[in-house]
Design goal:
The chain is mostly helical and 324 residues long. Helices cover 75% and strands 0% of the residues. The protein folds into two domains: 1-41, no CATH class; 54-322, no CATH class.
Length: 324
């Protein structure tokens, strides 16, 4: 009766848990005795919870900094497989894990941004003219558009309104092509050290589009930076540095949700679950950043565009076959 109306993935998870539970009960025990195991009493929910958390952590970590849209990859499994909302605690921990990865990878830049922030606050021209102060200023001016739009979308419910598989499919395709075109036509002559306030503001404004699922925050900011003539590696570097305040804001929002009564009723995860999610998200994100930064020194954004086209096209086919 457990398999009725479930997908092959659901059935597989259920069977794996049943086998594990029977084994833990001991081979000398009868099948009836093994059914008394506490896991048996809630097999489907427990198995899907752990698989759900693990996949969310890895997906968040890998896709957060690649130009393929982390939001799309987080939304689609829930839409396709009917998974429940993971709750604000898991959102918070997944964000903290990916934030920790980018901070560690760019620890030298992070130190410079912090020190540069103090240089800006000193109001001394000789300190404000330092390169680290300029870097802090660029990240600072690029951040507000994303914070304002992100806050507004969550406050007025617009974020839920655009979480449609159709929107994800078309934005994956459309912005994937734009990413590739900017890489083909954009010059590779500028570094962050050659950036000015106008460029930082434009890249920050482009980041606003990332709140449409399927666009990709890193993808659209790299697209803007490449269009302005920044090299691939420098475009990716600034995109990831820009990500820190946005991810921190997203994590803070999830934390505030966690403190509300409504969030508490939806939060089925324990702190231990959250720490595991944060750990997997951190490992996946650090690995993804390391590999990606090495790849873009050798290849163009073409493979990422092709991946987006395939995923977007496959999603449209699935929607057509399933009746939307």
């Amino acid at each position: 009766m457990y398999n009725k109306g479930r997908s092959k993935i659901d059935t597989f998870c259920y069977r794996v848990l049943n086998i594990s539970c029977y084994w833990s009960a001991g081979q000398e025990k009868t099948t009836q005795q093994s059914k008394s195991c506490s896991l048996w009493k809630r097999p489907y929910r427990y198995a899907m919870t752990w698989i759900h958390y693990l996949l969310l952590a890895v997906i968040q970590g890998i896709t957060e900094f690649l130009p393929i849209s982390s939001s799309a990859h987080l939304i689609l499994p829930a839409k396709v497989f009917g998974w429940p909302d993971q709750g604000p605690l898991i959102d918070l921990m997944a964000h903290l894990g990916s934030l920790g990865a980018v901070v560690l990878y760019y620890k030298a830049d992070v130190k410079n941004i912090i020190a540069g922030g103090f240089d800006l606050l000193s109001f001394k021209p000789e300190r404000q003219s330092r390169k680290r102060a300029q870097l802090a200023l660029f990240v600072l001016v690029a951040t507000p558009p994303g914070l304002i739009v992100g806050f507004s979308m969550n406050m007025f419910g617009w974020a839920e309104a655009v979480r449609s598989p159709y929107i994800i499919a078309w934005t994956m395709i459309g912005f994937g092509i734009i990413l590739w075109l900017s890489d083909v036509w954009g010059k590779q002559v500028k570094s962050i050290e050659k950036m000015n306030l106008k460029s930082a503001v434009l890249i920050g404004l482009a980041q606003v589009l990332a709140f449409i699922p399927g666009t990709s925050r890193s993808g659209i900011t790299m697209t803007a930076a490449r269009s302005l003539g920044f090299t691939r590696s420098e475009s990716a570097r600034f995109s990831m540095l820009m990500a820190m305040p946005i991810i921190l804001a997203g994590g803070s929002y999830a934390f505030l949700q966690l403190l509300t009564d409504d969030a508490g009723t939806r939060n089925v995860a324990s702190l231990g679950d959250g720490l595991i999610v944060a750990g997997f998200s951190f490992i996946a994100a650090y690995f993804a950043i390391s590999v990606f930064m090495k790849l873009i020194e050798r290849i163009s954004f073409l493979p990422f565009m092709l991946y987006r086209l395939v995923l977007g096209g496959a999603l449209l086919v699935w929607l057509a076959q399933s009746g939307g």
